[in-house]
Amino acid sequence: MPGLTMETLEQMMDMTQRGVLLGYMGDQFEIGSLVIALTLCGLLAQEIHDNTLVLPLCSGKRFASIVLAKLLVFGLALLLLPGLSLLVCYLYAGLLFDFTVGLAPVLVSGLLQGLFTVFMLSGLLLTGALLKKPIAAGLTTLLATYGLYALGSLLKLNAYLPTGLLVEAQKLALPAFGDWIGPVAITVGGIAVFTYLTLLRLRRLEWNARAAG
Asked: Are the beta carbons of 111 and 57 closer than 8 angstroms?
């Protein structure tokens, strides 16, 4: 996982419940981001590419309702799944090595990771609207996700980026208000901005189609 400190690496090598959880979270970010990007890359891009987005529009749906429905349904799943999988890992590691980490910090860490994946989903929708090609949208979002974390870690800017959620999650402790409010606010703001830009792009595509006709 890019940007891991030596302290975190040592904890991951330690065969304790905490070490297992940190190792799992690192894999969850790297592999989970790849799976999300390649699985959901066609969520909007494929519909634009195949011109099937016109079907819900003809039935009276608006761009806002279409995009928000995708964001709500898939976002809710992505918000909860990291926490549930981390909880399973917590129970399994606890049975193997004893319970040395509290349950509440694990649940909070799962939610922080989940919120970051929702941010990633909003990026997928935006790149899908811009590029109109599923694989291109997925790879662009994936590279941007990895790059954002690496850049934030290198320049020590994660506290001011959505990737700060992952840093707080790795602590496996109940974060102080001042530690998580910044990354959470920036992430929610980023989701809102990406959603707005996605809608703006879709409306322009519709206008271009009418003009061409």
From this structure: no
Buried residues in 68-103 as b, exposed as e (16+ CB within 10 A)? eebbeebbeebbebbbebbeebbeebbeeeeeebee
User: Is pLDDT above 70 for 202?
Assistant: yes
pLDDT over 90, % of the chain: 66
Residue 194: enclosing H or E segment and its boundaries? helix 177-212
Q: Which of 138, 122, 117 is nearest to 49 (CA)?
A: 138
Q: Give me the residue label for tokens 């809710």.
A: 76
Token couple for 133: 């090609």
The pLDDT tens digits of the residues spanning 118-175 come to 999 999 999 999 999 999 999 999 999 999 999 999 999 998 999 999 999 999 988 7
User: Residue 112 class from Cβ within 10 Å (0-12 exposed, 13-18 middle, 19+ buried)?
Assistant: buried
